[in-house]
Amino acid sequence: MATYCLTVARLQLALGQGVRRLHVSAAFNAKAKVSMSRFEPSNYVSYEKLNENVNIVRKRLNRPLTLSEKIVYGHLDDPVGQDIARGHTYLRLRPDRVAMQDATAQMAMLQFISSGLPCVAVPSTIHCDHLIEAQIGGAKDLARAKDINAEVYNFLASAGAKYGVGFWKPGSGIIHQIILENYAYPGVLLIGTDSHTPNGGGLGSICIGVGGADAVDVMAGIPWELKCPKVIGVKLTGKLSGWTSPKDVILKVAGILTVKGGTGAIVEYHGPGVDSISCTGMATICNMGAEIGATTSVFPYNHRMKTYLEKTGRGDIAALADDYADLLVPDPGCEYDSIVEINLDELKPHINGPFTPDLAHPMADIGATAAKNGWPLEVKVGLIGSCTNSSYEDMGRSASVAKQALDKGLKCKAAFTITPGSEQIRATIERDGYSKILSDVGGMVLANACGPCIGQWDRRDVKKGEKNTIVTSYNRNFTARNDANPATHAFVASPEIVTALAIAGTLDFNPEVDYLTAANGEKFKLEPPSADELPKLDFDPGQDTYQHPPAEGGSKLRVDVSPTSTRLQLLEPFDKWAGGDLEDLQVLIKVKGKCTTDHISAAGPWLKFRGHLDNISNNMLIGAVNIENDGVNKIKNQLTGEYGGVPDVARHYKANGLSWVVVGDDNYGEGSSREHAALEPRHLGGRCIIVKSFARIHETNLKKQGMLPLTFQNPADYDKIRPDDKISIKGLATFTPGKPLSAVVKHSDGSKDDFQLNHTFNETQIEWFQAGSALNRMKELQ
């Protein structure tokens, strides 16, 4: 875009020699000039540069490379000098582009505005998908969202125009589907402010979920840091067939690796079974890789990706990818840190849950397991779509099941909702008759948005606290995530299985063997679903929902934030490190068990405050379980002796000059990429989070905001901490990479404990802590 060219010199003056030089065709694509997307005709696919860097690294390491290594190392800022050791060193990378969904884009753009930079340095986009609540149907829900979120949408549109960021309007679709249709391609490195960004791995991309502060770094032209990932290989043999779908691959993998088994690793699928999976099916698998904690997931370039690129108007990229096909697959003889093998011939349909996405059950077993555990068998609602499963093929396979029921005079016994992934999918399935079939069987087509998957669901069929079961084709099923009801048992399956269960109305229905009763009393079995991978005709693009940044640049445009707004708030810099140890931090809460980013910063109705740090902080840790009383949002204020909500007590401590610490369990912060889960503790006076282990994105987000994420050197030391303790963090004057810090714990009875705390900070990240945040450090360097 012309905007980038206007700002190169100013960016280099502001940030020195570390500034990214723009993607220009002369430097990157001597062989062919192929645009990265139709929206950025002057930014080109850079396979020649990627290949050059890969050759440098391969020669240095003197070994074959996995596909993920090729793409990641191929984007190194310094391929000649970068220290590379899987699982140990930090890589400095140059991503090709940035994508932000509207809930996280608010804080990302507020941080970018605070940086003082005039324009983004790489192609970047904002996608309006998170703020549309499912209530009565797509068109009306969208109109309502546009009205109540007008202030936020106007802010994002105007900020995008001013700073050179493309803007996808509300109704355009879910960010990950839009990326797959327009921006992902084999070999690209993309970061996105959403944990399911890895969806793009289905098109041979390395797409990584990050917090907004990481996105700001890349948009500012600063090298982005990532701990060198390990590589888990998943070898697929056999072929998918019958009721077994791509979703079942990742449901099976989640059961094997668990919610933290992929932490610090890229999952790389390979083997002869890959070719039996469609491109969008591969995207489904990569999307839900977030649920095993993986940095991202990726598939090798093949003919299924080529066909998808051609069908989505990117045949020129497909042709160029063919020329570089050897670059876009793993080297023969490459080695993985570990390997999981799955025979697709033997894989059966799965359903995972409730309350965690790694509790895997074959469909044949779920009925008995549910009865044994007292899980409700009646399916109240079936929900298909979401960023994980809303492709043309997904909708077609679901319609195939629905059509069989309709032909026998049946409709869904459960309520049934359909979420198209994009405006293009919505328009195409409407044209091709899928929407009518799904509606006729009893379904309600929702807006092209995240909706119930992220808790944007005005559910009214059950009361809060009422035990019930829902089945979805979504990715996450944490407690209360979809409908704010902690008693809802949410199960995750493929869209065709969800459709079958919605028709049957019961969780113990296995469509492979069980019979339904037709309207005329006949018993019949559903045949395995079948559908086209892609439409026979071209996709119908539907309405044009994209706003280009102005070609002349945005220097004359204004972005206003009202000081009285309850939705948006300009950011104030966090305070710098004072130079000494952190003394007598009050334990705010000792968290018991699973604590996801949903527990730390709930979504649903709170999404409306994502651009206002003080208001969104009123949800901090309100879902976390207090080990003292097994309650939620009920902790003792050690200054008053009274019990109150977690944010209220934190505010009271801050007002009285008392800094605090949170103590947590394993895989703390798993789930969403939302950096609000890091911003809120910092804003309310927190200085440190001490846990047994962290999820990757949340640990990085905490570092970015000047917090200290630390882990017990001995996990058993978690048991030594009491809810009313004060903890001092020692050793900060000599804070260095690889050197543990120490904790001195003062108990209320006068006794003490001390132990070692590990950290993963590198030198740059220690500078963030000392400056008060990564954004503060960026300003210091200008």
UniProtKB/TrEMBL annotation:
Keywords linked to the UniProt accession: 4Fe-4S, Iron, Iron-sulfur, Lyase, Metal-binding, Mitochondrion, Transit peptide, Tricarboxylic acid cycle
Annotated spans, Disordered: 536-558
Associated pathway: Carbohydrate metabolism; tricarboxylic acid cycle; isocitrate from oxaloacetate: step 2/2
Start and end residues of each Aconitase A/isopropylmalate dehydratase small subunit swivel domain: 586-714
Classification via Pfam families: Aconitase, Aconitase_C
Cofactor(s), names only, from the UniProt record: [4Fe-4S] cluster
Record's subcellular location: Mitochondrion
One GO cellular component term noted in the UniProt record for this chain: cytosol
Note on how the cofactor is bound: Binds 1 [4Fe-4S] cluster per subunit.
Family: Belongs to the aconitase/IPM isomerase family.
Name used for this protein in its record: Aconitate hydratase, mitochondrial
